[in-house]
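Dear colleagues,

For the upcoming journal club I promised to circulate an example of a predicted protein-ligand complex. I picked one with fe (iii) ion because it came up in last month's discussion. The inputs are reproduced below in full, followed by the predicted structure.
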Amino acid sequence: MVSWDGSQGNDAAEEPTISAEQERRERELTERVVDSFEGTPDPRLRVVMQALTRHLHAFIREVRLSEQEWQAGIEFLTRAGHITDDRRQEFILLSDVLGASMQTIAVANPAQGAATEATVFGPFFVEGSPHIALGGRIAHAAAGEPCWVSGTVSGTDGTPVAGARIEVWQADAEGFYDVQYPGEHLDGRGHMFTDSEGAYRFWGLTPTPYPIPHDGPVGDLLEATGRSPVRAAHLHFMVTAPGHRTLVTHIFDADDPQLALGDCVFGVKDSLIERFDRQPAGTPTPDGRDLGDNTWSRVHFDIVLAAEHL
Ligand code: BEZ
Ligand code: FE
């Protein structure tokens, strides 16, 4: 087998035959490393490091990892480190394309009644987004079709949550977030608070599919494995309210053809697919905003927050 970095390796499909002595040596090494963590003062760290050791060693043994492949893995991680800075986070991308982010989210957000499902955070959230009044705009210079987004925030018992903080962020029609452009200008993001009835509303942009940054090692990995870097069109939300579990999620566009082709970070859940109703040019807007000759869309998304502690 030739691996993605061009080096020769073993074909994991062929069952390697290992002598009893070889098997004993490999298992003995694993146990020694597991035992080395036995004295870890933090019990949780001990559990995590011992399980990590067992699974990592099992992986190496299962694929009969060659030394060239191990070296290629180290070089891959080194490249990921070198390309990472305050604006580019290659390790999050790696976790995302491996489904590790979504698996962690699944474990950390157990189902609770009608609570809205969580999905991937992604690398493009930034602290310090502008506050916008209800009904305000999050996109200013960012290109795209205006989209009226409205809904409510409630608890699992249906009680409206007033004063919930809603952070929203999205890519523009070119498929880029503000932080991917040079300069410090924030656009396509903002936060607002629900009113006394738990309602929210704002103008965003109709989301479009876009590729995750794929000019680095994660992009090379996707290319070598025949996978697409494209994310289904979505709008990000993070909702926080006292007494409730913080919700990080998106909504996806039911009419997006990319939904059928897949989302490169496995973030789509059926319960998060919403209809973005396209409005012909000239259709009156809910707040009387004059959009001239532009088409626009509207979507309704009711958010249910899980209780923080049951
Ligand atoms: C995002 O949706 O912003 C995103 C998620 C995972 C990887 C890259 C981008
Ligand atoms: Fe995104």
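Two points we might discuss: Residues 122, 124, 171, 234, 236 surround fe (iii) ion (ligand 2) (CB under 6 Å). The CA atoms of residues 166 and 239 lie 5 Å apart.

See you all on Thursday,
B. R.
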